[in-house]
Amino acid sequence: MRIHFIGICGVAMSALATAFHNDSWDVTGSDVGFFPPISDYLKNNKIKFYPGWHVDKMMAGGTPNIIVVGNVAGSTNPEFAFAQENNLHYLSYPELIAEYIVQKNSIVCAGTYGKTSSTALLTQILQKANMDPSYMFGGLSINLKHSAKLKTDKNTWSVLEGDEYKTARWDNRPKFALYSPTHLLLTSASWDHADIYPTEESYFQAFRDLITAIPDDGLIVACTDAKQIKELINTKENKTRTITYSKNESADYRYYDLKQAQDGISFKIRNNDKEYAVQAPVLGEHMAENICGSFALAKEIGVDPNIILSAIAEFKGVKRRLEKRYTNDITIYDDLAHSPTKATATLSTLRTIYPNSKIVAVFEPNTGNRKSQSAPGYANAFKNADEVIIPTLTKVKVNKDDIDPPFDADALQNIISQTHPNALFIPEDKDLIEHIKKTTSKGDVVVFLGSHGFRGMIDSLITSLHPPLPR
C-alpha cells in the first residue's frame, strides 16, 4: 500500500507519515521547506521525501492508494491538481486520522492552548496503564519515540489533539469535528485564528458544537479558570457528565502550592478530600494546569492514581514547548507561542524562573495573529521581555479580495512598540543572530516564540556560540 503526503514537513503530517511507515506502508512526501527538528525526524525514520512539487516523483512508485493533502497545498499545487484531475483518492489529514486512528473510546484534547502537551501526557499515562491507545498530537514528544500511532483491533482507546483550525482548504469544519469524541479534555478558550474565526462568537461557537457532540454517556473534563469555559460547559445543550479542574477551591480537581525551578515543577492536586503530590520535569504554571487536567481525565476513566503520578514524573514534555536548546553563558529556549496570549504565558514563566535576567524574545506570529482584529491583544503582551525582536515574517498567501490582509513585520513592530519601549525589526536573519550575540551577556535568556521554524536561526545561533553544550 502506498501513501503520499503533500506538505510532509508539517508537525502533524510528519507524525502521520511515520505512523504509516511503521505500519509497513510505502510512504513518500513532498514540501517546499525542510527545517529541524521535523527534517531530522523524517530522516531518522527513513521517510522518503523530496523538495518541491513534482508529479513524476509522486507517481514514481505507482499510483498512491491515498494522497494526503496538507493546508500548504493550494488549488494551483501541481500534485494536488493532478490528483483531482485524475480522480485519485485524496484526503485531508483530519480525515485520515478519523479513518485510521479514532477508536470507539475517543479522547480529544481541545482548547486554544495546552492541547498538544495534554495529549502527549495522556498518551503516556494510558501507555503506562497498558491501555495501548492509538494517538496523534502535533508535536515531537521528548519521551515518546513517535507522535502518532494507528489503531489496531487490540485496543479500544484513542487520544487525539483536537485542533479548532479548519480541516482543509476545501473543508471549513474544525479538525476536532471529525474525531467522534466520547471524552473531552477542554483546556482553554480564548479567541484565536482570526483568519478563520472573524469574531469571538464564531470562535466560541465551534467549541459549543464540540461540547454538544459529546454523547450523554461520555465525559467532559474542563478547566474553569477562564470565564469562557464556564459559560461553554453550563449551556443547556450540555447533558454530559462534566468534571472541572482549576486552581480555585470550587473545582472538582484543584491544583495548588505550585513551586517552580529551572529543572521542573512540583505542586499538589486535591480531589474528594484526597491530596496527591505531583512532580514533573517541565516548566510553567500552564503545565501544572495541563497536568491537573490530564490527571483528572485519566483518574475518571479508571486509571490508578499511582500509575498516573509515575507517568507524570517521567513526562519531559514536547519539543518547542519551552524547550531548553542551549545553556552556557546564555540560555536559549524554543517555544511554539505564536500568539500574544501564548507569548505572555511563556514569558511570565521565564520571568518567574529567571527574575533577575535579561530576557530577549524573538517573536513571529501565525497568520491569524497578523490580522487587524488581533492587534489589541498585543498590548503589554511582552511586558516580561526586556527586548522584543521581530524577524522577517514567513510569507503567506493572500487572497486578492481579502479586505484585511496580514500585516507585515514593520506593522507588527509598530503595534508592539505602542506598549513596549524596546521592540526591533531586524530583516536579515544573519544580522538578527549577530545582534543577539553582541547584546547578550552571561546570565541572559533568549527565547524564540513562533510556530514556524525561524529558517534555522536557532541552530545557527547555537552553532556560533562556543563551547556548545549538549542539549
TrEMBL record:
Pfam families assigned: Mur_ligase (PF01225), Mur_ligase_C (PF02875), Mur_ligase_M (PF08245)
Mur ligase central domain sequence ranges: 110-298
UniProt keyword list: ATP-binding, Cell cycle, Cell division, Cell shape, Cell wall biogenesis/degradation, Ligase, Nucleotide-binding, Peptidoglycan synthesis, Signal
SUPFAM superfamilies: MurCD N-terminal domain, MurD-like peptide ligases, catalytic domain, MurD-like peptide ligases, peptide-binding domain
Signal peptide: 1-19
GO biological process, one term: peptidoglycan biosynthetic process
Domain spans labelled Mur ligase N-terminal catalytic: 2-101
Residues covered by the Mur ligase C-terminal domain: 320-451
UniProt-listed InterPro entries: Mur-like_cat_sf, Mur_ligase_C, Mur_ligase_C_dom_sf, Mur_ligase_cen, Mur_ligase_N, MurCDEF_pg_biosynth
Molecular functions per Gene Ontology: acid-amino acid ligase activity; ATP binding
UniProt keyword Cell cycle present: yes
Name of the protein this chain belongs to: UDP-N-acetylmuramate:L-alanyl-gamma-D-glutamyl-meso-diaminopimelate ligase
Organism: Candidatus Magasanikbacteria bacterium RIFOXYD1_FULL_40_23
